[in-house]
Amino acid sequence: MSEPYQNTEKQIKKLVSQRIVPGISYAIIDHEQVIKKVMGDSEVKPKHFQLQDGMTYDVASLTKIVGTEILISQLVEEGQLSYDQQVVKILPNFFDAQVTIRHLLTHTSGITGYIPHRNELSTRELLQALFTLEIGPDFNQKVVYSDLNYIFLGLIIEHVLHTPVQVAITERVLTPLKLTHSTFAPDPLICVPTEWTAKTGLIRGTVHDPKAQILGAHCGSAGLFSTLGDLTKYVTWLLHPETNPSVLKKQTVNQLFENQTANPDLIRSFGWGLIKQTDNGEDHWVLKHSGFTGTMLLVDTTRQQALVFLSNRVHPTADNQIYFTYRQAVIEAFLKDGQGSVKG
């Protein structure tokens, strides 16, 4: 299968050879065939270490779609929630009755506001401060990606299940999907590090996102650590949800590959971003989600293809904007190569 994806692999290798990121673990899935490769370094500062197969990454916002979104959809299947239910019906202290679970899932809630000294607050103080925010003019008018939407979804899950969201993700998603190397409490010795500063030292095995550090098990937006192998298992399940209907029914997973915004002029699925592709005159959506630390998943159920891309682009510093141009080249190459694979 490697030949049809030569350009994808070429673009991925550029990120390492041109030192845009220290190293990359990636998998390309096309039907039953899988390419998996690991290249480059795991750490360049303060020491230099080569990246090893099976290392654990802080996957950042992939937590939203691997864990939190799946839990919400499970609760909808069980009749404990509905996508168009008002948030205030579950969280009475929520600040606007217009907002539904669908708005949170699709990043169309318009939540805005400022929490003073946010990163210095305790868990309890930050949880209280979240309810002092407000809904701005973007409500149902724009897709504005925000961790806040998934923090509130995590609190909704906790209210229904009476257990911290990260515990629920472990019990109801990671365990049944046999994602045995995915965890919210990783062994630092096998973790790919994130940022390094002279002041804080090296962040390794501790979640990079400051909100997730404070909220701990109550954070539905970030905090998960995972491996190339586990995320390959996860996207393979999305391509074949009938293999484990105990997690979600096939028709529920199929809804992910559709526009789910309440305003049809906006484009977003439950959790995932959507990229339109056309094969033989027929349009379909490809799922895309990325994480701040340098992680990304692409899933195309129509073509039965997926890409798992893991890097630590924030190492040694998060000030790495050129990465996004290179990442876009990887996305475009994968979509083009995938189309060629279909037509070939």
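^ that was protein a. below is b, sequence first then the tokens
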Amino acid sequence: MNLVKRDGHTHTEFCPHGSGDDVEKMIIKAINLGFTDYSVTEHAPLPLELKDHYRGSDSGIDEASMRIQDVEPYIKKIQFLKQKYRDQINIKLGFEIDYFADFETYTEDFINEYADVIEDSILSVHFLKGKGNKYWCVDNELEEFAEGLFNYYGDSQKLYRQYFLTVQDSVNFLATHGYVSRIGHMTLIKKFQDYYSLTNDYSNSNQKLIIEVLKAVKNSGLELDLNTAGLYKQYCNDLYPDGWIRQRAKKLAIPMVFGSDSHGIVDVGRAHSLAEFELSQLTN
């Protein structure tokens, strides 16, 4: 019996903030590491109108996703590699799609346009409404996170609440749309937690909110991205989602799929064994 070894969150040279490494070389490394399943989930293009609703550094939006003109070349390349390595690894083509409450129609149109090729995709929250009632990037630069989000909300629990309310909106959106399998790095808002010495505890109201979100994930038949990228971030040093949420997700029998969130060859498969160990330690 062959055991499935799956990476459900990876990127390619089409990502402007990545390493530029060729995705084929990343796939070859995954094969050499014994992976049987490999989802390629490049960042889908952002809505053009977002520029009018965004604050923060240019890189936070200009380098956040692939260009619209790169979508077709991306699809063609992954489809070619699927066939080339079909006897060695099961490659799935997909996207990591950003959720914006103000641009649900754009997201719906994108999903519908590529529904015939999407095999495995992720919906993530990388942007949050903050200072000036504008969108700010959650995980780009510490300075803009501080200005637009942390200082604006003034309290970590208020910031967490706004983020998880947005995640909740994304889950509700997915409840009526197919082709997206899971919620990406559910605690990305904690990327800078060590810089601020943020508590790992959630307030009672946030605990209730998170459990509501998890129940919605369960009822919608979605998965969670068990993302190891946070372990390698200077001020995070933790998996996404954190242990408290993983425990509750396990109790609800929500599937969690390992994701390296690799943006280069060096990242492929990183901390897979640790992620699997963490899952094995969770109580039922």
